[in-house]
Amino acid sequence: MVISNDTAFQPRIAEALRTLRSLHLFQTVFQHGVGLAWARALEAMDRRIPAEAASAYGEWFHRLAASGWEGDGWRAQLAQAVVTHRNPFTLSEAPGVGLAAAAAHDLDRIETLAEPALVAALRQALADAGYSSLRPTDLGTHRPKGFSAQLVAANGWGRYADAMHASARRAGVGISAHWAMTWDGERRQLRPVRHPDIPNPALFVGYDSPRAQVTQNTERFLAGLPCNDVLLYGDRGTGKSSTVRSLLTPFGARGLRLVEVSRHWLRDLPWINERLAEEAQRFIVFVDDLSFEADDETYKAAKAALEGGLTARPSNVRVYATSNRRHLVREQWTDRPDPGDPRANDAVDESLSLADRFGLTVVFTAPDQELFLRIVAGLCQQRGLGVDETELRGPAIRWAKWYNGASARSARQFVDDLEARLRF
């Protein structure tokens, strides 16, 4: 149905569309997702097609409901969108006066698009055409955080442009606002990890020395000091991956980000570096279980990517990898050098060359029995199981023998099983 007569709210809707079209930096807020649904609802009603406007309004409401905002969902959504938006202003290290003025211009206008009176005008226009609609308020318990929360409570968003820029440089915008992400090699893009597994290093038991080496190198990285790519190698289940992931606990709020990349996509490292170089945050490209078969063609591509080429490695990216092999390439007995061949060591040197790309190698060895038992006792104490250490000794040793051997992982698995039996 197309309506021919203006409703009393038509001028307000037309004004909102003019405001939306006058944005200089934040246009893409309204070119996808919930912002696009809102723009479509306004445009359809401006063209006097209420059925299309009602459909767009329903999509807009659905997307806001999926975010689960508490209170005014639309205002919270827009505040979150502008704070995490990637544009020349939020990405600039030192925006000029004109760029800052453009940001303030847009923020003031976006705030008018968040006004409840505009939502009420659109709802009333829909009602006049016979379509019911609901207000997007109290759709969940999710509250804005950080600078988004400040904007929601503030009036005159343009006055906060400088503070928003400082927040963007500190907390990140777009994908870099997420502490953890993965590399999608098929599409060559970064994807956020919505619910990352971030261990608390304060709860680790044992392996203090190797973990301290990794932490110290990361501290230097964050401080802009010389630091190295890191290879963590050693026995399985000794906490190599957990050590890397746990770095986000102390350093995530200071701008550290983790990008997990499959070894098969290490050849994309030049593209990843180029994508991350423009960000203010510092990124660890994390490759878990890095190893290759002798005939694996991705080995040379990975080596070339780590070594780099004409393009310099960005200062805000380092590579941390874990492996159960020091040499990274599986070796056969036939690979051992022939003493009579003057070039016999060339193949061996080639197999070592990728590991040599890492400036810092940190070793995690399987725990001896006493360390294994200390890890078990420490985990039991953290969980408040109240089991005497002497009572743990026999069952823990048997568990290690029957299952995966003595390791930090098997210690946790034993304690998981013990806790389940005690609390069942």
SSE order and pairing:
Blueprint: H1 10-21, H2 33-46, H3 50-67, H4 73-83, H5 88-91, H6 97-113, H7 116-128, H8 147-153, H9 161-171, E1 180-184, E2 189-192, H10 208-222, E3 230-234, H11 240-245, H12 248-251, E4 256-260, H13 269-277, E5 282-287, H14 298-307, E6 317-323, H15 345-356, E7 360-364, H16 369-382, H17 389-402, H18 408-423
Helix pairs in contact: 1-2, 1-7, 2-3, 4-8, 16-17, 16-18
Description of the molecule:
With 424 residues, the chain is an alpha/beta fold. It has three domains: 10-173, no CATH class; 180-331 and 344-364, Rossmann fold, CATH 3.40.50.300; 369-423. Helices cover 49% and strands 9% of the residues. The chain has 18 helices and seven strands. The protein has helices at residues 10-21, 33-46, 50-67, 73-83, 88-91, 97-113, 116-128, 147-153, 161-171, 208-222, 240-245, 248-251, 269-277, 298-307, 345-356, 369-382, 389-402, 408-423, and strands at 180-184, 189-192, 230-234, 256-260, 282-287, 317-323, 360-364. Strands 2-1-4-5-6-3-7 form a seven-stranded mixed sheet. Helix 1 (10-21) packs across helix 2 and helix 16 crosses helix 18 (408-423). It is globular, with a radius of gyration of 28 Å. The termini are far apart. Residues 343-349 have low confidence and may be disordered.
